[in-house]
Structure formats: structure tokens, C-alpha cells
Amino acid sequence: MSHDAVKTGPVGVGIIGAGVISKEYLDNLTSFPDVQVVAIGDLFEEAAAARAAEYGVPVHGGVEAVLGNPDVEIVINLTIPAAHVEVATRAVNAGKHVWSEKPFSLDRESGLGLLKTADAAGVRLGCAPDTFLGAGLQTARRMIERGDIGAPLTALTLMQSPGPESWHPNPAFLFQDGAGPLFDIGPYYLTTLVQTFGSIRRVAAFGSKSKETRVIGSGPKAGEKFAVTVPTHVSSILEFEGGESAQSIFSFDSPFKRAGFVEITGTEATIAFPDPNRFDGDVRICATGSDDWTTVPSIGSTAGRGAGVLEMARALREGRPHRAQGELAFHVLDTMASIAESIDARAFVDVASSAAPVPALPEDWDPTAATLSA
Fold it and tell me: Does the CA dihedral 97-63-184-167 come out positive or negative?
């Protein structure tokens, strides 16, 4: 079983995966007094050594430099998506709590297996995105809970772009299994909707591809063609456990960019959330029967990636549930898999899993405060 309440002081964390994303995590985690980055590991040990030198991390090496380190309480899993479950399972078996970058897993079976393994071991799982803990989405959430829009009824979310191949130097993986606009961008929007309405119970969707191949637009591979194997436009309808509904479009087929569009309509007003892929941004609200939108400045932390790790670390010490839970990430994955199945079957698909909304953060939640005494 875990020993959440035994240790005191800052929580020791170790990072597996020293790639591009590790830099943003390390920028933030090394500035949070309640966590201490004690080790970094990578299959390419020289990459781990370079990151360790850059951020003053005392221990570096292969994966075992993190998994075998007694000072590491939370393993931060920043490996490639296909390795997420394998690395997380190894960490759980080593008695560590795990925070993973999204996606939680690539399929329901391995994700469910990881949840059961962690539960049996008495350790916690956390998973990105943690943008829903940022000031923008937390402010919108508190406004809804306060009753500012009345009872929430429906939602519309849009993520439309021409696709990332024009600027990404190696974009092929974003157009293949486990990605596409649904799996790559969907977690930000679906996590936000689940935190607003509760669990998703049923989905229906259509998907299409505008092209069978695309062309890399920048970098050393510019001009190369690659195959598109997943839908690049997904139009979905979601039904929530309370009977509310949402329509969500995820598209790499639009000449226009409409990222970050989330509107929730209630009985008294409509609220426009900031971009769920960001931690900041103002909220707008418009009373029913009016055309006048009011901008509400967001209140809270805009710390960025790693905020969920910190919140999880503090929850460990305080002996309470953390917010960016594995069950939430699995429910979002289950929903996306159900949307993909609905596209293929051309039918409604039930979503079996659940994830209850977690409490909103206090307005004064401060990642830079030292709250864990030794």
C-alpha cells in the first residue's frame, strides 16, 4: 500500500523522457518549492545527462535511475505515447505514483489494466491535460458553480485548423493511429466538458479525410509526402449523464483557425471559456436575451505544465484525492475511442466509464508558495 501520510516536506519527483516537452515541465517544477526534481532518465542517457546539467538535477541516467531511486515518489512519464502504459506500469510496480503526459493509453484494455494495477498497488495515477487547473478554465468553472448562467444545458466546441504539417518538421504521426485532431486535441476539450457536465454517457460522430496524403511544409523533410490514416475532420455529439448535450468539432481540414472555442449555454446566460489548451485567458458571459458580452478577468494560477504534478504532490501530503486523476484521463480516452467506433459503425455508441468532476481550486491556489513543511 502507499504511504501517502508518512513522509513530510517537498515531494521528490523523477522524470522519464528528456525530450522537448521535458523542458517546459522542468522550467516550472524547478520553480515550485513543494516539489523537488531529484532524477531524470531516458533511453538515451546522454539526453538525460544534458537536461540534468541544464537544470541542476542531481541524478541522471537510464530509466532505472528514476525507477530505482528511493527519493522519487512521483514518476513523471514523458515518453512517447506508445510507451506510456509500459513505463507507467513499471513505475507502479516499483511502488511509485505516476503522472503521465497525454494520452493515458492508446486503447481501453491497456488503460483499464493500468488503473487496476495501480489500485492494487495502492499508488496514484495522474495524467495531462492539467490545463483545466489553470486560471482561465477554473474561473469559468467557478462562475457556473455560482449559478451565473443558471443550469448548464448545452455546449458547442470548435477546434478547426488547416493541420500542423505546414509548420511541424515531422508531422506524419499526428495523422495516424492514436492521433489525428480527435486524439491529439480532443483531451483538452473533452476534459473541460466532463468537468462542467459530468460523465459522458453516449456519443455519435461522423469523420472524414480531405486528402489521403499530405506534404511536410517545413524543416529538413519539407516536400516529403506522408499517408493520412485517420479522419482529419470529426463532428461529434455527446450526451452527458444528466441529459445535457454538446456538439464538438475537431478538424485539420479547415482553412480557418478557430481553436479554443468553447461555449456553454445555460438557462440564464451563455459563457465563453478561454482556450482549453491554455492555462490563462479571460472568460466572457452574455445574458439570455441580450447581445452584450461582458469580459471577466480570470483569477488563479497560470503556471503551465506541471501544475497537475504539483497539485498531486500536495494531495499526497494532505491525504486527499488529487484532481487530474487517472480515472478522468481514462474516461476521456474511452470517450474518444467511442467516437472513433461511432464513425466506423455509423451508430450511437455507449460510454461505459465514468469520472466525477473534481472540486474547483481555491482562487488563491499558488504553485510558488511553500506549503509542505519538512
Answer: positive
- Nearest-angstrom CA–CA distance, 289 and 292: 9
d(C-alpha 42, C-alpha 51), whole Å: 10
3-state SS, residue 301: coil
SS3 content of the chain, % helix, strand, coil (to 5): 35, 25, 45
Q: Which amino acid is at 370?
A: A
Q: Which of 294, 267, 296 is nearest to 152 (CA)?
A: 267
Confidence (pLDDT) at 2: 44
Q: Cell digits for 194?
A: 466532463
Residues 201 and 69: their CA atoms lie apart, in Å, by 41
| DSSP type of residue 81 | G
Its pTM stands at: 0.94
Residue whose entry in the numeric block shows the C-alpha cell 458571459? 285
Q: Which residues does 232 contact at the CB level (< 8 Å), separation at least 6?
A: 163, 175, 180, 181, 208, 209, 210, 211, 251, 252, 253
Greatest CA separation for the chain: 61
Residue type, 325: Q
Q: Which residues of the chain have pLDDT under 50?
A: 1-5
Cα 43 from Cα 64, distance rounded (Å): 10
Domains and CATH numbers, the chain: 11-130+305-324 (3.40.50.720), 152-266 (3.30.360.10)
